[in-house]
Amino acid sequence: MKCYCLFCRAGAEEKFVKSLSFLLKREYASFDDLSVIFPVRVVQEKRQGKWRPKVQPVLPGYVFLYLDDDDPFPSFQARQCEGYFRVLKYPDGHIELKGTDLQYAEWIRSNKGTLQPSRISLDLGNRITVISGPMKDMQGKVVKLDRHKKRVIVAFEFAGEVRHVNLSVEIVSKGGSGP
Fold first, then answer.
1. H helices within 90-168, ranges in order?
2. End-to-end CA distance of the chain
3. What's the sign of the alpha-carbon dihedral 29, 70, 5, 55?
4. Looking at beta carbons, which pairs linking 95-101 to residues 24 or more positions away fall under 8 Å?
5. Listed range (22-26, 59-63, 168-172) with the worst mean pLDDT
6. Per-residue pLDDT tens digits for 26-59
7. Residue 178, pLDDT score
8. Phi, psi of 25 (to 5 degrees)
9. pLDDT, tens digit, for every residue of 92-119?
10. Are 135 and 152 contacting, i.e. CB atoms less than 8 angstroms apart?
11. How far apart are CA 61 and CA 6, in angstroms?
12. C-alpha Rg value of the chain to the nearest Å
């Protein structure tokens, strides 16, 4: 499986995904193996005293394209879509994701592009244990836990840079204060 990261206009990612999916579906007979994903996260926000889910982009302006190993990159179809800027390239000229970038893209795909709130448990000494959710198998580092807003800041390496992603968590239990 090959993966590419496409840069498009921020705010128009969903329209771009629909347009590219439509064009690829016409072009490739085995569209079941292809997928175009705009990664989003579901965060809990407190409005008028109630917690409500809100969908936000993980990487605004970026879309992942997953293809079979034998399929070429569909540059013509991508250029036909409104809002397309370019495909991200490595300094050596490769456009296919590799290393930690590929691991991150596969993690996004394994969660079907939507990062739901993870369920965590706080143990003695504020040690975090992830019970379920997308952070259970993550490769990032927890930078900060905000119990009041039910958020955790996670550092991921993507495109050669460390990026901080704010994810929603549900705190299930808190450990005691000691013996």
1. 100-110
2. 52
3. positive
4. 95/4, 96/2, 96/3, 96/4, 97/2, 97/3, 97/4, 97/5, 100/139, 100/157, 100/158, 101/5, 101/157, 101/158, 101/159
5. 168-172
6. 777 665 668 899 999 888 888 888 888 899 898 8
7. 42
8. -65, -35
9. 999 999 988 898 899 899 889 998 887 7
10. yes
11. 8
12. 18
**Count, residues in the chain:** 179
Residue 141 corresponds to which tokens in the numbers above?
A: 């580092």
State how far the Cα of 162 lies from the Cα of 43, in Å rounded to an integer: 21
The domains of the chain, with CATH numbers, are: 2-174 (3.30.70.940)
- Given a contact cutoff of 8 angstroms between Cβ atoms, the answer to whether 40 and 113 are in contact is yes
This prediction has a pTM of 0.77
For 37-77, the DSSP string reads: E--EEEEEEEETTEEEEEEEESSTTEEEEEE-TTSPP-HHH
Locate 69 and state its tokens.
Answer: 């190993």
Task: Give the span between the Cα atoms of 118 and 172, in whole angstroms.
Answer: 10
CA 164 → CA 27, 69, 101, 128, 157, distances in Å?
A: 37, 31, 14, 18, 9
Tell me what pLDDT residue 72 has.
81
